[in-house]
Amino acid sequence: MDGKMKLYATSTAMILGEKIAKVLGIPLHRIHTEKFSDGELFVRFNESIRGQVVFLLAKVNMPYEHFFEMLMTVDAARRSSAKEVVLIIPYLPHSRQERRDGQRTSISSRMVADVIQLMGPDRIITLDLHTNAIEGFYKIPLDPLPSLRLFVDHIKHSGLDNLCLCSPDFGGIKRIKQYKKHMDAEIAVINKERLKPNQVSHMEIIGEVHNKNIVLIDDLVDTAGTLCAAANLLMEEGARSVRAYCTHGVLSGHALENIQLSALDKLYISDTVVEKLDHPKIEIVSCDELLARAMAQLINNKSLSAMV
Fold it and tell me: Roughly how many angstroms between the first and final C-alpha of the chain, as a whole number?
């Protein structure tokens, strides 16, 4: 790796940062972070980064303090004369609020984009955007790495036959079509009607799922209500088994209980949000190698689309 590159991680991303550093064979440099008695944060680089390409890994899921710490760290890097700041945000917050669903509402994903860019990063790497429209909110390069590179080998090595790839909504059809190019499987989709966020009023399956081993693929799982309802419906329609692959395991509210009581055999998530979890039905597939390869491609001036 180029000696002009340094990898840093915010306080919430140290575990993943250590994994990425190990894959690349480089050290993970430390950032001094302190919280004052009134709750204010203080961030400082303990060494010179003048003229360096700084890769900054940050996990900015709730609470918002994590997001603000990232902003302060980017600002500190800029004020310390870093040559380039590449921001790695595995899970981009507010990605589900990219449009106005009604009057007098905010487009918060646009707000997030504006605030991040105001601090001055040169590039952003993330995983699986909820919708590609979010890319249009950024004037700097935004590289959303698809879950295909994260999960497809895991699915192929699962030993399951009679596979059926299923999207929990029409928005994910393009995603499962990309997966289908790499494996022998049929596809299905679930049509759902929502009453409000995290609450579905009606679901129906489009496609043949009888006697199939179903693999649900989605970008994130939050309360898991919809995912579990989909798994239960698929089993009721004669599926042999149901497992799910979701890039971002937000797992808020009663998610863990919902998953435990559902017909899901297994849920596979990446460590973009949660890094350690003791749950009989949930397994974490780390994104460390994927992010490390993306970093190596950038530092060597190679295309991310050419990643194997």
Answer: 18
Residues with a known catalytic role = 192
Q: 104: pLDDT confidence band, cut at 50, 70 and 90?
A: confident
Is residue 188 within 8 A of residue 170, CB to CB? The reply is no
pLDDT at residue 199 greater than cutoff 80: no
Cα dist from 225 to 35, 135, 158, 200, 232, whole Å: 36, 28, 25, 8, 11
With residue 43 as reference, give the H or E element that holds it: strand 41-45
Q: φ and ψ at 172, to 5 degrees? A: -100, 10
pLDDT in the model for residue 1: 53
Least confident window among 99-113, 225-239, 264-278? 99-113
pLDDT above 60: residue 159: yes
Q: CA-CA distance, 250 to 215, in Å (whole number)?
A: 19
Considering only CA atoms, which of 195, 176, 196, 171 is closest in space to residue 186?
176
pLDDT of 296 > 60? The answer is yes
Three-class secondary structure of residue 24 per DSSP: helix
Q: How far apart are CA 117 and CA 140, in angstroms?
A: 8
Identify the pLDDT of residue 98. Answer: 75
Kindly report each contact of residues 44-48 with a partner whose C-beta sits within 8 Å and lies 24 or more positions away, as own/partner: 44/76, 45/8, 45/76, 45/77, 45/80, 48/80
- DSSP 8-state assignment for residue 271: B
